[in-house]
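HUMAN:
Just now I want nothing more than another pair of eyes on a protein record. I would be glad if you read both lines and explained how they fit together. I have put the entry right below:
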Amino acid sequence: MSYDDTIAPPSFQDFIRDNGGDPRYIDEAAARFVMESHAEAMQRAIEPAERERRDMTASEARTFEFHRNALRMFSAAFDAGKFGAISRKIGESRRQLGLEDSSATHRRNATGWSVGNEERTYAKGDQRSSWVKDMVAVNIRGDYNGEASQRLQRNRQEVETRALTTTDGAGGDFVPPAWLVDQFIALARSRRVTADLVQNMALPTGTDSINVPKLVSGTAVAEQASQNTGVQQTDAVTSAVQATVATLAGGQTVAVQLIEQSPINMDEILLQDLVKDLASKTNLFVLNNVTAGRLGLLQVAGTNTVTFTSASPTVAALYPKIADAASRVTTSVYDSPDAIVMHPRRWYWLLAAVDSGSRPLIVPSGQGPYNAVGQQNPGAPGFGQVGEIGGIPVFTDPGISTAFGAGTNEDKIIVLKRDVHVLYEGALNAEAFRAPKADQLSVFLRVYRYVAQATRYPAGVSIVTGTGLATPSF
């Protein structure tokens, strides 16, 4: 393999010269130079995000992934001493790194298309070309020498540079466009709506339980009967609220081949999914945990229960029950509730309700509601804060079960003062272990976190429950 001094930049020429200039070492020197260039390109891609303390943009992430995959490929070949195997990629990588003459937009070599800095052959949303249409043109209409065939060949070359495995004569032309691999569909997970609503505190280290002192009954003050007579004296009674520590954990055994050979980072994808499920399970822990010493909001003794019984429930019948629940919180803890939490199906049932003139009872706040039951926040998502009822913010949480009641078809509505319940959380631990599974070429991915919770004032929580909250009809 030879290099054109008019194309190679001075730094490349110097690198070759510094390595002896001997033709026998040209491939090795070129490989080292390209690997170092890929490493530098990775650093340049990530520097803006690090400097601005933000996540990488989609474009920056794609650039980083490209150079990381290329670096892995060259490193593996270099370590194995296969300089001939990587020499075919040197020219292409030089053009990707901007080391080639910019006027050489498209060039061919013995293996087909070489890819420069131009955009991909097939891009998501690009109406100018279609991978499926080109596949039909080549494999059904037999257009083996036309533009469709050329685009498929070029796409295959693009995907190969991303370390995908393709084999000529064994389906290589059927490799999907790179964006199809990048745009994988993550599993939908419910979020930790209620867990983020309650008071969050760091879990102290070195303990398996937390005891918070509490006044059960307090001192007292009264009018003095007359001068020089005794004043009111009442002794306080104390107790403690205990929160025992639990461990929320999950893991996944993954083949080393899947991690090392996949065109996308499967270890990152699986760890992210484990973290998302940890968040979802933390939310369920706060809502409905049944273990003594760490009971969830719906299981704590001493909360206010408001029963809504109806075979044909209406919003007009439910509204006073929510007001009753709020009243009981204020009466008990002498402070107003600041959150109403309900299942999304209950909120959308409220939105669907109309008056005798077919006007919605809950209307968008931006339209200046008059005499409305509640308000809907414009542009609110299907979870988190979605509106207000009686001036109290409403949050929807799909973590609330819909299997309560004798018919296992009821949900519940929680009206609470948010700081009456405390969630303690330790640090999130995400780890990967190879040694225990070394005999089977597997890696064990694990996430875990220590958690505890306690309800400081159970009466600061009201639960609306009953047959009126059975599966709604729309």
Summary: The first helix runs from residue 10 to 18.
